[in-house]
Design brief:
Elements: H1 2-25, H2 37-45, H3 47-51, H4 54-72, H5 81-105, H6 123-126, H7 128-147, H8 153-187
């Protein structure tokens, strides 16, 4: 993984050099150099904007959900009475969550439908990943606390952080890949 990350960083540097060479060799072509004053202003000025996408938010939310799901014990369901009770209660909680989502999105004139009454695109479709991540987080924490696998609030907090720790390499690759993609768009626009 470190070699892939280094390769992506080197690709970004190579793209900067190639963009400079292309803009110098073919000035009328419309290529933009990342090493020119305009290119450096664009690169530094749009760095945060380039990274601020729904994909980043989804990655963070899903990593939080994964951490709690992993530590809750829900993936490794046992057969003890407490775990069976926790699973039953969690399933009932899931039914309530699904019912609320259906009421907010599937009935006529629902709040999460678009202005034209469609599901796609709509506030429902835009919030699908965050709602799923939040639901998984909530259900996993609930199961973990009822089953005794996540007995205290600090254990739930640690589970959330574990998800972020496990997703940290993905965050690095997200940054590197997003910058390369945005830089390519700038150079060849």
């Amino acid at each position: 993984m470190p070699h892939i990350a280094l390769g992506l960083f080197a690709a970004q540097l190579l793209l900067m050099l190639v963009s400079w060479l292309l803009s110098a060799a073919f000035p009328a072509s419309g290529y933009h150099s990342l090493l020119s004053s305009e290119g450096l202003r664009w690169f530094l000025g749009h760095f945060v904007d380039s990274l601020s996408t729904p994909l980043l938010v989804w990655l963070v939310l899903l990593s939080l959900a994964y951490g709690v799901l992993r530590h809750s014990g829900l993936l490794h369901y046992g057969r003890s009475f407490r775990e069976r009770q926790a699973l039953l209660m969690t399933l009932l909680f899931l039914v309530v969550i699904v019912a609320v989502i259906v009421l907010l999105s599937a009935v006529p004139h629902a709040v999460l439908l678009s202005a034209t009454g469609r599901l796609f695109p709509s506030p429902f479709s835009q919030s699908l990943v965050p709602v799923v991540a939040f639901s998984v987080t909530l259900l996993s924490a609930f199961y973990g606390m009822v089953s005794g696998n996540l007995e205290t609030l600090p254990r739930v907090y640690d589970a959330l952080l574990d998800g972020i720790r496990r997703a940290a390499p993905l965050l690095l690759f997200y940054i590197l890949l997003t910058q390369i993609y945005e830089s390519l768009c700038y150079v060849f626009q």
